[in-house]
Amino acid sequence: MTDSLRFIPLGGLCEVGMNCAALAWGDATIAIDCGVGFTDELGADMVHPNFGWLYEQGERLRAIVVTHGHEDHIGALPYFLKRFRVPVYAPPYAAALIQDRLAEHRLEDVELRVGAAGSRFKIGPFGIERFGVHHSIADATGLILDTPVGTVVHTGDFKIESEPCAGQRFDRKRLEEAARDGVRLLLSDSTGADVEGTSDLERNAETALEQWVARSPHRVVVATFSSNVFRLRAAFRIAREHGRKVCLLGMSVRKHTETASDLDLIPPVESVLVSAEEATTLPRDQVMIIAGGTQGERGSSLTRLAHEEHSYLHLSEGDTVIFSSRIIPGNELPVLDVINRFEERGIEVITRHEHPEIHASGHGSREEQRAMIRLLQPQAFVPVHGTHHHLRRHAELAREEGVTEIEILQNGSVLEVTRDSLAVVDSVPVGRVYVEGMEPLGDRVMEDRRAMASGGIVTILISIKDGKLRSSPRVLARGVVGNELRSPVEQKLADHVRSKLKGRRFTQPEKAEEAAIEAARRFLIHNHRKRPLITAVVDGGS
Ligand SMILES: [Zn+2]
Ligand SMILES: [Zn+2]
User: Fold this and answer.
1) What is 202-358's CATH topology?
2) 269 C-alpha vs ligand 1 centroid, how far in Å?
3) At the N or C end, where does the chain have fewer CB atoms within 10 A?
4) Residues, beta carbon < 5 Å, ion ligand 2
Protein backbone atom coordinates (compact mmCIF):
# COMPACT_ATOMS: atom_id res chain seq x y z
CA MET A 1 0.00 0.00 0.00
CA THR A 2 1.38 3.40 -0.92
CA ASP A 3 0.93 5.71 1.97
CA SER A 4 -0.40 9.16 1.37
CA LEU A 5 -1.21 11.95 3.73
CA ARG A 6 -4.91 12.47 4.35
CA PHE A 7 -6.52 15.58 5.82
CA ILE A 8 -10.10 15.08 6.97
CA PRO A 9 -12.07 17.98 8.48
CA LEU A 10 -14.82 16.70 10.82
CA GLY A 11 -16.21 20.08 11.91
CA GLY A 12 -15.74 23.81 11.33
CA LEU A 13 -16.02 23.79 7.54
CA CYS A 14 -19.08 25.36 5.92
CA GLU A 15 -20.13 26.37 9.44
CA VAL A 16 -18.83 28.53 12.28
CA GLY A 17 -17.36 26.82 15.36
CA MET A 18 -16.95 23.09 16.13
CA ASN A 19 -13.43 23.00 14.74
CA CYS A 20 -12.00 19.51 14.50
CA ALA A 21 -9.91 17.84 11.82
CA ALA A 22 -7.82 14.70 11.39
CA LEU A 23 -4.45 14.20 9.77
CA ALA A 24 -3.55 10.62 8.90
CA TRP A 25 -0.55 8.75 7.55
CA GLY A 26 -0.40 4.96 7.45
CA ASP A 27 -1.53 3.64 10.82
CA ALA A 28 -1.22 6.99 12.62
CA THR A 29 -3.96 9.59 12.95
CA ILE A 30 -3.94 12.80 14.98
CA ALA A 31 -6.85 15.14 15.58
CA ILE A 32 -6.35 18.89 15.50
CA ASP A 33 -8.73 20.74 17.88
CA CYS A 34 -11.97 19.44 19.36
CA GLY A 35 -14.45 22.30 19.57
CA VAL A 36 -18.10 23.08 20.18
CA GLY A 37 -20.54 25.53 18.71
CA PHE A 38 -23.13 27.37 20.80
CA THR A 39 -26.82 27.06 20.10
CA ASP A 40 -30.14 27.47 21.83
CA GLU A 41 -31.82 25.31 19.25
CA LEU A 42 -34.62 23.28 20.86
CA GLY A 43 -33.25 23.60 24.36
CA ALA A 44 -29.72 22.41 23.56
CA ASP A 45 -26.82 24.51 24.90
CA MET A 46 -24.13 23.47 22.49
CA VAL A 47 -23.30 21.19 19.63
CA HIS A 48 -20.17 19.30 18.67
CA PRO A 49 -19.12 17.22 15.66
CA ASN A 50 -20.05 13.58 15.55
CA PHE A 51 -16.80 11.82 16.45
CA GLY A 52 -17.83 8.39 15.12
CA TRP A 53 -15.10 8.28 12.50
CA LEU A 54 -12.40 9.24 15.00
CA TYR A 55 -13.60 6.56 17.44
CA GLU A 56 -13.39 4.01 14.63
CA GLN A 57 -9.70 4.79 14.24
CA GLY A 58 -9.14 2.92 17.52
CA GLU A 59 -5.43 2.44 18.23
CA ARG A 60 -4.53 4.45 15.18
CA LEU A 61 -5.69 7.68 16.83
CA ARG A 62 -2.61 8.80 18.74
CA ALA A 63 -3.48 12.24 20.14
CA ILE A 64 -5.53 15.40 19.97
CA VAL A 65 -3.44 18.51 19.34
CA VAL A 66 -5.11 21.74 20.44
CA THR A 67 -4.10 25.07 18.86
CA HIS A 68 -5.59 27.41 21.50
CA GLY A 69 -8.12 27.65 24.30
CA HIS A 70 -11.28 29.00 22.63
CA GLU A 71 -14.40 26.92 23.09
CA ASP A 72 -14.71 26.28 19.37
CA HIS A 73 -11.36 24.46 19.65
CA ILE A 74 -11.43 22.76 23.10
CA GLY A 75 -15.09 22.68 24.20
CA ALA A 76 -15.85 19.15 23.03
CA LEU A 77 -12.82 17.52 24.66
CA PRO A 78 -14.71 16.24 27.72
CA TYR A 79 -17.38 14.63 25.51
CA PHE A 80 -14.74 13.05 23.29
CA LEU A 81 -12.57 11.84 26.16
CA LYS A 82 -15.50 10.30 28.02
CA ARG A 83 -15.75 7.74 25.22
CA PHE A 84 -12.13 7.49 24.14
CA ARG A 85 -8.84 8.26 25.85
CA VAL A 86 -5.90 9.75 23.98
CA PRO A 87 -3.24 12.22 25.12
CA VAL A 88 -4.08 15.88 24.59
CA TYR A 89 -1.38 18.37 23.60
CA ALA A 90 -2.16 21.98 24.45
CA PRO A 91 -0.47 25.34 25.03
CA PRO A 92 -0.46 26.55 28.68
CA TYR A 93 -3.54 28.80 28.73
CA ALA A 94 -5.64 26.25 26.86
CA ALA A 95 -4.31 23.48 29.14
CA ALA A 96 -5.43 25.37 32.26
CA LEU A 97 -8.93 25.75 30.82
CA ILE A 98 -9.03 22.11 29.71
CA GLN A 99 -7.95 20.91 33.14
CA ASP A 100 -10.81 22.81 34.72
CA ARG A 101 -13.32 21.45 32.27
CA LEU A 102 -12.12 17.89 32.79
CA ALA A 103 -12.55 18.32 36.55
CA GLU A 104 -16.14 19.55 36.04
CA HIS A 105 -16.83 16.38 34.08
CA ARG A 106 -14.98 14.28 36.70
CA LEU A 107 -12.57 13.03 34.08
CA GLU A 108 -9.37 11.90 35.72
CA ASP A 109 -6.11 10.56 34.35
CA VAL A 110 -6.26 12.39 31.06
CA GLU A 111 -2.74 12.77 29.75
CA LEU A 112 -2.31 16.50 29.14
CA ARG A 113 0.98 17.52 27.55
CA VAL A 114 1.60 21.23 27.82
CA GLY A 115 3.84 23.15 25.43
CA ALA A 116 4.01 26.84 24.52
CA ALA A 117 4.84 28.40 21.16
CA GLY A 118 8.26 27.14 20.07
CA SER A 119 7.85 23.69 21.63
CA ARG A 120 8.33 20.58 19.49
CA PHE A 121 7.05 17.05 19.84
CA LYS A 122 6.67 13.92 17.77
CA ILE A 123 3.55 11.82 17.31
CA GLY A 124 3.98 8.75 15.07
CA PRO A 125 5.30 9.95 11.72
CA PHE A 126 4.55 13.61 12.48
CA GLY A 127 7.10 16.07 13.84
CA ILE A 128 5.09 18.97 15.25
CA GLU A 129 6.21 22.45 16.26
CA ARG A 130 4.01 25.21 17.69
CA PHE A 131 4.42 28.77 16.48
CA GLY A 132 2.93 31.83 18.17
CA VAL A 133 0.13 33.76 16.45
CA HIS A 134 -1.73 36.91 17.44
CA HIS A 135 -5.29 36.15 18.48
CA SER A 136 -7.86 37.17 21.07
CA ILE A 137 -6.68 34.67 23.68
CA ALA A 138 -3.33 34.06 25.35
CA ASP A 139 -0.99 31.34 24.03
CA ALA A 140 -2.64 31.01 20.62
CA THR A 141 -0.54 28.82 18.35
CA GLY A 142 -0.40 27.45 14.86
CA LEU A 143 1.27 24.16 13.95
CA ILE A 144 4.17 23.36 11.64
CA LEU A 145 3.77 19.67 10.87
CA ASP A 146 6.67 17.79 9.39
CA THR A 147 5.05 14.96 7.39
CA PRO A 148 6.37 12.34 4.94
CA VAL A 149 5.06 14.42 1.99
CA GLY A 150 6.55 17.69 3.24
CA THR A 151 5.67 20.50 5.61
CA VAL A 152 2.04 21.21 6.41
CA VAL A 153 1.23 24.45 8.24
CA HIS A 154 -2.04 24.87 10.18
CA THR A 155 -2.49 28.50 11.26
CA GLY A 156 -5.02 27.89 14.03
CA ASP A 157 -6.99 31.14 14.47
CA PHE A 158 -4.81 34.15 13.80
CA LYS A 159 -4.40 37.82 13.07
CA ILE A 160 -1.20 39.77 12.47
CA GLU A 161 -0.93 42.92 14.59
CA SER A 162 1.44 45.63 13.38
CA GLU A 163 1.88 46.88 16.95
CA PRO A 164 1.21 43.92 19.24
CA CYS A 165 0.55 44.52 22.92
CA ALA A 166 2.55 42.84 25.69
CA GLY A 167 2.21 39.06 25.66
CA GLN A 168 1.12 38.78 22.01
CA ARG A 169 3.58 36.77 19.95
CA PHE A 170 3.83 36.11 16.23
CA ASP A 171 6.74 33.87 15.17
CA ARG A 172 7.35 35.44 11.77
CA LYS A 173 10.99 34.32 11.62
CA ARG A 174 10.10 30.68 12.15
CA LEU A 175 7.52 30.87 9.35
CA GLU A 176 10.06 32.48 7.03
CA GLU A 177 12.40 29.56 7.74
CA ALA A 178 9.63 27.06 7.05
CA ALA A 179 8.94 28.85 3.75
CA ARG A 180 12.61 28.62 2.78
CA ASP A 181 12.53 24.86 3.28
CA GLY A 182 9.27 24.66 1.30
CA VAL A 183 5.66 24.37 2.52
CA ARG A 184 3.66 21.61 0.85
CA LEU A 185 0.26 22.67 2.21
CA LEU A 186 -1.15 25.63 4.11
CA LEU A 187 -4.38 25.23 6.10
CA SER A 188 -5.43 28.75 7.04
CA ASP A 189 -8.14 30.42 9.16
CA SER A 190 -10.86 31.93 6.92
CA THR A 191 -12.99 33.73 9.54
CA GLY A 192 -12.03 37.24 8.36
CA ALA A 193 -12.15 36.49 4.62
CA ASP A 194 -15.04 38.92 4.11
CA VAL A 195 -13.34 41.89 5.75
CA GLU A 196 -11.17 44.06 3.50
CA GLY A 197 -7.89 45.52 4.74
CA THR A 198 -6.40 44.68 8.08
CA SER A 199 -8.13 44.06 11.39
CA ASP A 200 -8.19 46.63 14.18
CA LEU A 201 -5.39 46.57 16.72
CA GLU A 202 -5.94 45.24 20.21
CA ARG A 203 -4.09 48.27 21.63
CA ASN A 204 -6.53 50.64 19.87
CA ALA A 205 -9.47 48.83 21.45
CA GLU A 206 -7.75 49.37 24.80
CA THR A 207 -7.34 53.11 24.12
CA ALA A 208 -11.00 53.44 23.09
CA LEU A 209 -12.11 51.53 26.18
CA GLU A 210 -10.11 53.88 28.37
CA GLN A 211 -11.66 56.96 26.74
CA TRP A 212 -15.19 55.69 27.29
CA VAL A 213 -14.49 54.73 30.89
CA ALA A 214 -12.94 58.20 31.51
CA ARG A 215 -16.09 59.81 30.07
CA SER A 216 -18.51 57.72 32.11
CA PRO A 217 -19.90 59.78 34.99
CA HIS A 218 -21.24 56.90 37.09
CA ARG A 219 -20.92 53.16 37.21
CA VAL A 220 -19.49 51.54 34.14
CA VAL A 221 -20.09 48.00 32.94
CA VAL A 222 -17.53 46.51 30.56
CA ALA A 223 -19.02 43.59 28.67
CA THR A 224 -16.34 41.61 26.92
CA PHE A 225 -15.32 38.12 25.80
CA SER A 226 -13.85 36.88 29.05
CA SER A 227 -11.29 34.67 27.30
CA ASN A 228 -9.57 37.79 25.89
CA VAL A 229 -6.91 38.18 28.56
CA PHE A 230 -5.50 41.26 26.84
CA ARG A 231 -8.83 43.10 27.11
CA LEU A 232 -9.32 41.82 30.65
CA ARG A 233 -5.86 43.08 31.63
CA ALA A 234 -6.65 46.44 29.96
CA ALA A 235 -9.93 46.76 31.89
CA PHE A 236 -8.14 46.12 35.22
CA ARG A 237 -5.43 48.66 34.42
CA ILE A 238 -7.99 51.28 33.38
CA ALA A 239 -10.04 50.67 36.53
CA ARG A 240 -6.96 51.07 38.71
CA GLU A 241 -5.82 54.26 36.99
CA HIS A 242 -9.29 55.79 37.07
CA GLY A 243 -9.90 55.03 40.73
CA ARG A 244 -12.52 52.36 40.20
CA LYS A 245 -12.92 49.07 42.06
CA VAL A 246 -13.73 46.04 39.92
CA CYS A 247 -16.67 43.73 40.41
CA LEU A 248 -16.54 40.54 38.34
CA LEU A 249 -19.94 39.26 37.27
CA GLY A 250 -20.30 35.76 35.89
CA MET A 251 -18.52 32.43 36.20
CA SER A 252 -16.60 32.84 33.01
CA VAL A 253 -15.01 36.25 33.79
CA ARG A 254 -14.11 35.02 37.26
CA LYS A 255 -12.61 31.82 35.84
CA HIS A 256 -10.53 33.60 33.20
CA THR A 257 -9.32 36.23 35.69
CA GLU A 258 -8.19 33.46 38.01
CA THR A 259 -6.47 31.48 35.24
CA ALA A 260 -4.78 34.58 33.83
CA SER A 261 -3.55 35.54 37.32
CA ASP A 262 -2.22 32.02 37.97
CA LEU A 263 -0.26 32.15 34.73
CA ASP A 264 1.01 35.70 35.48
CA LEU A 265 -0.71 37.07 32.39
CA ILE A 266 -2.31 39.86 34.42
CA PRO A 267 -0.85 41.62 37.47
CA PRO A 268 -2.35 40.76 40.90
CA VAL A 269 -5.96 41.94 41.08
CA GLU A 270 -6.94 41.24 44.71
CA SER A 271 -6.54 44.86 45.83
CA VAL A 272 -9.07 46.19 43.30
CA LEU A 273 -11.65 43.41 43.43
CA VAL A 274 -14.95 43.92 45.28
CA SER A 275 -17.98 41.68 45.58
CA ALA A 276 -21.31 42.64 44.02
CA GLU A 277 -22.62 43.42 47.52
CA GLU A 278 -19.67 45.71 48.28
CA ALA A 279 -20.02 47.40 44.89
CA THR A 280 -23.46 48.66 45.88
CA THR A 281 -22.01 50.53 48.86
CA LEU A 282 -19.34 52.40 46.85
CA PRO A 283 -19.87 55.79 45.17
CA ARG A 284 -21.13 55.11 41.65
CA ASP A 285 -18.14 56.71 39.94
CA GLN A 286 -15.78 54.33 41.74
CA VAL A 287 -17.15 51.11 40.30
CA MET A 288 -16.35 49.11 37.17
CA ILE A 289 -18.30 45.94 36.57
CA ILE A 290 -16.78 43.41 34.19
CA ALA A 291 -19.55 41.16 32.94
CA GLY A 292 -19.72 38.13 30.70
CA GLY A 293 -22.56 37.43 28.31
CA THR A 294 -21.94 39.73 25.36
CA GLN A 295 -24.26 37.69 23.12
CA GLY A 296 -27.47 38.16 25.08
CA GLU A 297 -27.25 34.59 26.39
CA ARG A 298 -30.09 33.46 28.62
CA GLY A 299 -29.05 33.57 32.27
CA SER A 300 -25.78 35.44 31.66
CA SER A 301 -24.78 38.24 34.05
CA LEU A 302 -25.33 40.97 31.49
CA THR A 303 -28.76 39.68 30.50
CA ARG A 304 -29.68 39.52 34.19
CA LEU A 305 -28.53 43.12 34.70
CA ALA A 306 -30.60 44.15 31.68
CA HIS A 307 -33.68 42.42 33.11
CA GLU A 308 -33.02 43.81 36.61
CA GLU A 309 -32.76 40.28 37.87
CA HIS A 310 -29.45 40.57 39.71
CA SER A 311 -29.73 40.07 43.48
CA TYR A 312 -27.58 43.09 44.43
CA LEU A 313 -26.72 45.18 41.44
CA HIS A 314 -29.25 47.45 39.79
CA LEU A 315 -28.07 49.84 37.14
CA SER A 316 -29.77 53.18 36.88
CA GLU A 317 -29.86 56.36 34.83
CA GLY A 318 -26.40 57.77 34.21
CA ASP A 319 -24.62 54.40 34.32
CA THR A 320 -22.82 53.24 31.18
CA VAL A 321 -22.63 49.81 29.57
CA ILE A 322 -19.73 49.35 27.14
CA PHE A 323 -19.91 46.40 24.77
CA SER A 324 -16.20 45.85 24.12
CA SER A 325 -17.18 42.99 21.86
CA ARG A 326 -18.98 42.14 18.67
CA ILE A 327 -22.25 40.42 17.94
CA ILE A 328 -21.58 36.92 16.63
CA PRO A 329 -23.83 36.55 13.56
CA GLY A 330 -27.13 34.96 14.56
CA ASN A 331 -27.23 36.60 18.00
CA GLU A 332 -28.50 40.01 16.84
CA LEU A 333 -32.00 39.79 18.36
CA PRO A 334 -31.09 38.80 21.93
CA VAL A 335 -28.26 41.39 22.00
CA LEU A 336 -30.60 44.13 20.73
CA ASP A 337 -33.08 43.16 23.42
CA VAL A 338 -30.40 43.60 26.10
CA ILE A 339 -29.37 46.98 24.64
CA ASN A 340 -32.99 48.19 24.51
CA ARG A 341 -33.68 47.20 28.08
CA PHE A 342 -30.69 49.25 29.27
CA GLU A 343 -31.53 52.25 27.13
CA GLU A 344 -35.17 52.25 28.24
CA ARG A 345 -33.89 52.91 31.76
CA GLY A 346 -31.65 55.82 30.73
CA ILE A 347 -28.47 53.79 30.79
CA GLU A 348 -25.93 54.82 28.15
CA VAL A 349 -24.92 51.94 25.88
CA ILE A 350 -21.72 52.02 23.83
CA THR A 351 -21.45 49.40 21.07
CA ARG A 352 -19.18 48.62 18.20
CA HIS A 353 -22.01 49.52 15.85
CA GLU A 354 -21.64 53.28 16.45
CA HIS A 355 -18.09 53.14 17.82
CA PRO A 356 -16.14 50.52 15.83
CA GLU A 357 -12.93 51.33 17.72
CA ILE A 358 -14.29 49.78 20.94
CA HIS A 359 -13.52 46.22 19.81
CA ALA A 360 -10.77 44.52 17.82
CA SER A 361 -11.43 41.15 16.23
CA GLY A 362 -9.14 38.22 16.98
CA HIS A 363 -9.20 37.15 13.34
CA GLY A 364 -7.11 38.62 10.56
CA SER A 365 -8.83 40.42 7.69
CA ARG A 366 -8.02 39.79 4.01
CA GLU A 367 -4.68 41.57 3.99
CA GLU A 368 -3.45 39.54 6.97
CA GLN A 369 -4.62 36.34 5.30
CA ARG A 370 -2.78 37.45 2.17
CA ALA A 371 0.33 38.21 4.27
CA MET A 372 0.24 34.67 5.69
CA ILE A 373 0.13 33.18 2.18
CA ARG A 374 2.98 35.45 1.03
CA LEU A 375 5.00 34.59 4.10
CA LEU A 376 4.71 30.82 3.63
CA GLN A 377 4.47 30.59 -0.18
CA PRO A 378 2.77 27.20 0.03
CA GLN A 379 2.52 24.84 -2.95
CA ALA A 380 -1.05 23.98 -1.98
CA PHE A 381 -3.74 25.81 -0.07
CA VAL A 382 -6.86 24.70 1.79
CA PRO A 383 -8.95 27.31 3.61
CA VAL A 384 -10.32 26.16 7.00
CA HIS A 385 -12.63 27.61 9.72
CA GLY A 386 -15.64 29.30 8.14
CA THR A 387 -18.76 29.06 6.04
CA HIS A 388 -18.49 27.96 2.43
CA HIS A 389 -18.58 31.63 1.41
CA HIS A 390 -15.61 32.43 3.67
CA LEU A 391 -13.66 29.45 2.35
CA ARG A 392 -14.37 30.49 -1.24
CA ARG A 393 -13.29 34.09 -0.66
CA HIS A 394 -10.13 32.91 1.10
CA ALA A 395 -9.37 30.54 -1.81
CA GLU A 396 -9.67 33.55 -4.19
CA LEU A 397 -6.90 35.25 -2.24
CA ALA A 398 -4.60 32.24 -2.57
CA ARG A 399 -5.28 32.17 -6.31
CA GLU A 400 -4.41 35.88 -6.55
CA GLU A 401 -1.15 35.07 -4.79
CA GLY A 402 -0.28 32.49 -7.44
CA VAL A 403 -1.13 29.28 -5.59
CA THR A 404 -2.52 26.79 -8.13
CA GLU A 405 -3.28 23.72 -6.02
CA ILE A 406 -6.36 24.75 -4.03
CA GLU A 407 -9.24 22.70 -2.64
CA ILE A 408 -12.40 23.85 -0.88
CA LEU A 409 -13.48 21.03 1.41
CA GLN A 410 -16.58 20.09 3.33
CA ASN A 411 -16.76 18.34 6.67
CA GLY A 412 -16.04 14.69 5.96
CA SER A 413 -14.03 15.29 2.75
CA VAL A 414 -10.95 13.07 2.57
CA LEU A 415 -8.17 15.15 1.03
CA GLU A 416 -5.24 13.10 -0.23
CA VAL A 417 -1.93 14.90 -0.33
CA THR A 418 1.17 13.52 -2.02
CA ARG A 419 4.39 15.32 -2.92
CA ASP A 420 2.90 16.36 -6.26
CA SER A 421 -0.87 15.96 -6.08
CA LEU A 422 -3.84 17.16 -4.08
CA ALA A 423 -7.28 15.61 -4.47
CA VAL A 424 -10.50 14.81 -2.64
CA VAL A 425 -10.63 11.02 -2.90
CA ASP A 426 -13.39 9.98 -0.53
CA SER A 427 -15.66 11.12 2.26
CA VAL A 428 -16.37 9.87 5.77
CA PRO A 429 -19.64 10.20 7.73
CA VAL A 430 -19.98 13.36 9.81
CA GLY A 431 -22.82 14.98 11.74
CA ARG A 432 -23.73 16.95 14.82
CA VAL A 433 -24.27 15.96 18.42
CA TYR A 434 -26.37 18.34 20.54
CA VAL A 435 -25.60 18.73 24.23
CA GLU A 436 -27.87 19.96 27.03
CA GLY A 437 -26.20 20.67 30.35
CA MET A 438 -23.44 18.09 30.28
CA GLU A 439 -25.38 15.35 28.51
CA PRO A 440 -25.40 14.62 24.79
CA LEU A 441 -28.89 14.44 23.29
CA GLY A 442 -29.32 11.66 20.72
CA ASP A 443 -30.59 12.28 17.18
CA ARG A 444 -33.93 10.80 18.18
CA VAL A 445 -34.40 13.34 20.99
CA MET A 446 -33.69 16.21 18.62
CA GLU A 447 -36.08 14.77 16.00
CA ASP A 448 -38.81 14.48 18.64
CA ARG A 449 -38.18 18.04 19.86
CA ARG A 450 -38.22 19.36 16.30
CA ALA A 451 -41.54 17.64 15.59
CA MET A 452 -43.07 18.90 18.86
CA ALA A 453 -41.78 22.46 18.37
CA SER A 454 -43.13 22.75 14.85
CA GLY A 455 -46.23 20.57 14.99
CA GLY A 456 -47.24 19.91 18.59
CA ILE A 457 -47.89 16.47 20.08
CA VAL A 458 -50.62 13.87 19.74
CA THR A 459 -50.99 11.05 22.25
CA ILE A 460 -53.18 8.02 21.51
CA LEU A 461 -54.32 5.80 24.38
CA ILE A 462 -55.41 2.33 23.27
CA SER A 463 -57.05 -0.45 25.18
CA ILE A 464 -56.46 -4.01 23.96
CA LYS A 465 -58.01 -7.26 25.15
CA ASP A 466 -56.92 -10.65 23.78
CA GLY A 467 -55.01 -8.82 21.06
CA LYS A 468 -58.07 -6.88 19.92
CA LEU A 469 -59.18 -3.30 20.31
CA ARG A 470 -61.46 -3.19 23.35
CA SER A 471 -62.92 0.29 23.07
CA SER A 472 -62.48 3.45 21.09
CA PRO A 473 -59.00 4.98 21.55
CA ARG A 474 -58.59 8.26 23.43
CA VAL A 475 -56.67 10.99 21.68
CA LEU A 476 -55.03 14.06 23.22
CA ALA A 477 -53.73 16.76 20.89
CA ARG A 478 -51.64 19.62 22.28
CA GLY A 479 -50.21 22.47 20.22
CA VAL A 480 -51.60 20.95 17.02
CA VAL A 481 -54.73 22.94 16.08
CA GLY A 482 -56.51 26.02 17.41
CA ASN A 483 -58.51 25.66 20.63
CA GLU A 484 -61.97 25.48 19.05
CA LEU A 485 -60.85 22.72 16.68
CA ARG A 486 -59.08 20.66 19.29
CA SER A 487 -61.99 18.50 20.55
CA PRO A 488 -63.44 17.79 17.09
CA VAL A 489 -60.00 16.86 15.74
CA GLU A 490 -59.30 14.61 18.73
CA GLN A 491 -62.66 12.90 18.19
CA LYS A 492 -62.15 12.46 14.45
CA LEU A 493 -58.67 11.08 15.04
CA ALA A 494 -59.98 8.63 17.63
CA ASP A 495 -62.70 7.47 15.22
CA HIS A 496 -60.21 7.09 12.40
CA VAL A 497 -57.71 5.11 14.48
CA ARG A 498 -60.54 2.92 15.73
CA SER A 499 -61.70 2.18 12.19
CA LYS A 500 -58.15 1.23 11.17
CA LEU A 501 -57.50 -1.03 14.17
CA LYS A 502 -60.92 -2.61 14.52
CA GLY A 503 -61.06 -6.32 13.76
CA ARG A 504 -57.27 -6.66 13.65
CA ARG A 505 -55.44 -8.94 16.04
CA PHE A 506 -52.18 -7.71 17.56
CA THR A 507 -49.72 -10.30 18.87
CA GLN A 508 -47.76 -7.60 20.73
CA PRO A 509 -48.91 -4.24 22.14
CA GLU A 510 -46.12 -2.47 20.17
CA LYS A 511 -47.73 -3.59 16.92
CA ALA A 512 -51.00 -1.90 17.91
CA GLU A 513 -49.10 1.25 18.88
CA GLU A 514 -47.29 1.33 15.54
CA ALA A 515 -50.53 0.83 13.63
CA ALA A 516 -52.25 3.62 15.59
CA ILE A 517 -49.36 6.05 15.02
CA GLU A 518 -49.28 5.29 11.31
CA ALA A 519 -53.07 5.72 10.96
CA ALA A 520 -53.00 9.04 12.84
CA ARG A 521 -49.98 10.26 10.89
CA ARG A 522 -51.65 9.66 7.53
CA PHE A 523 -54.94 11.18 8.73
CA LEU A 524 -53.28 14.38 9.97
CA ILE A 525 -51.18 14.89 6.86
CA HIS A 526 -54.05 14.16 4.51
CA ASN A 527 -56.79 16.16 6.26
CA HIS A 528 -54.89 18.90 8.10
CA ARG A 529 -51.36 18.99 6.60
CA LYS A 530 -49.95 18.61 10.12
CA ARG A 531 -46.91 16.63 11.19
CA PRO A 532 -46.90 16.63 15.00
CA LEU A 533 -44.99 14.18 17.17
CA ILE A 534 -47.35 11.23 17.63
CA THR A 535 -47.04 8.74 20.45
CA ALA A 536 -49.30 5.84 21.34
CA VAL A 537 -49.55 3.71 24.42
CA VAL A 538 -51.46 0.48 25.01
CA ASP A 539 -52.84 0.00 28.49
CA GLY A 540 -51.97 -3.14 30.43
CA GLY A 541 -54.96 -5.49 29.75
CA SER A 542 -54.08 -8.24 27.28
ZN1 LIG B 1 -9.98 31.36 18.50
ZN1 LIG C 1 -11.93 29.60 16.38
Assistant:
1) Rossmann fold (3.40.50)
2) 25
3) N
4) 70, 72, 157
